[in-house]
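Input record (Table S2, row 471):
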Amino acid sequence: MGDVFQFLNLARNPGDKKAAEVRKIEFKEIYQPLNACDATEQAGRCLSCGNPYCEWECPVHNYIPNWLELVSEGRLFDAAELSHKTNSLPEICGRVCPQDRLCEGACTLNQGGFGAVSIGSVEKYITDEAIKAGWRPDMSRVTFSGKKVAIIGAGPAGLGCADVLVRNGVRPVVFDRYEEIGGLLTFGIPEFKLEKQVIRQRRELLEGMGVEFCLNTEIGRDIQIEQLLAEYDAVFMGMGAYQYMKGGFDGEQLPGVLEALPYLINNVRQHMGTLPAGETALSMKGKRVVVLGGGDTAMDCNRTAIRQGAARVVCAYRRDEANMPGSRREVGNAKEEGVEFLWQRQPLAIEQNSDGSLKVRVAETRLGAPDAKGRRSAEIVEGSIEEIECDHVLIAFGFQAQAADWFERQGIASDARGRTLAPEAGAFKFQTANPKVFAGGDMVRGADLVVRAVFEGRQAAEGILGWLGVW
Ligand code: FAD
Ligand code: SF4
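Output record (flavin-adenine dinucleotide complex):
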């Protein structure tokens, strides 16, 4: 081990961030990668705590201090192998995890005010640089059992499942209705957080390991579930949560009021050159935009509109900044890029002006008791109404899971909120009520985080391997 007091002399560095003026006119990642020297030094700031809190707070329980030590010793390929033992998408989680709420939030160095080890940036560095240097996952000891599993959904849950299955000699065939893998990684999260080349690189890696992708293929439309059940030894569903949540107030149907996800998806597709015929990507150039919501989707809408050249972007959220669900880092980035936040504002209605423009009526809120998730409820302050004039409203209140129409005939159960029932603590992890079908990710836990979907996909793969008798 190197100098255990390195953190005293060396400040935290998560990678240089481009100036707001530069980044707000381009759809490119805003954090520069660490170079080898910085990565080694940053990794060396780790205290190697005996019982590392960061590992416990990381949803996939990465061996963080161990791979940091490998990086500080310059053993890049060993670090890449170790980081893939627990995480199927380390370079992606390194980019999009809200580290301030997870691994880095738990870093012991925070206690002395020294600034957490830049865990996410080093995690990203390991895989990015290892791939550039020729590293590929070691499959030399894998023998294939002849079993094959159909995976519905090429999002983080499906990819996590495919990764563990193929490493254990079971062939995964991944079906997705979209033209590229990644799920919301590709068709949701904008390029300024995650450039699409990163996902294409991961696809090449997975295909090289023996994962097959059948894209532009919707299960239930192009292929029926019955066919998959007949042709494969098991099925994993990682279909995400796409039921759009509404505000339930007047004016949500007005022209100019848009759902967040189609807006984001078509913007990405336009950049990828895959916009389907007949569809358009809406530009906010010169427009006054109001974004309603306080999660990651809202932040991505804010910052996409800014990059499109919106005249003004106002984000209204019913709680205060401390109680918002989105990543603090991304809220900070949005503020720097010129987004105006109106905290503690509850939307009441959207109205159309005579010239076709819109106004959003909001009321001020006061914060009440914490809810089940620890976030304080928002109660309207009587007589505090104000109006925000705008041209477009983007509604980003989140998404719910939804049962597919084949669930009932295949005996797959879901709860009142549309979440598929597939318990982690069952005899075989993440098995649904139909023993041949497993599920994980947003469709089981509700809209959440990339890293939790990866974890559940990996865990479900273990459940499948146990059920198939491969383990
Ligand atoms: P998804 O990523 O939704 O993937 C599901 C896949 O299943 C999709 O590709 C879909 O096409 C496919 N599918 C569904 N039904 C079928 C069918 N019948 N046939 C074939 N294919 C099907 N999380 C973070 O950690 N950090 C962030 O910064 C972040 N930002 C986000 C920004 C936005 C705009 C959104 C919407 C979410 C964000 N999230 C973020 C959340 C994160 O993206 C999700 O939690 C995660 O992608 C869930 O993974 P999943 O595999 O369960 O589902
Ligand atoms: Fe941190 Fe996410 Fe990486 Fe875990 S996967 S170490 S939470 S960045």
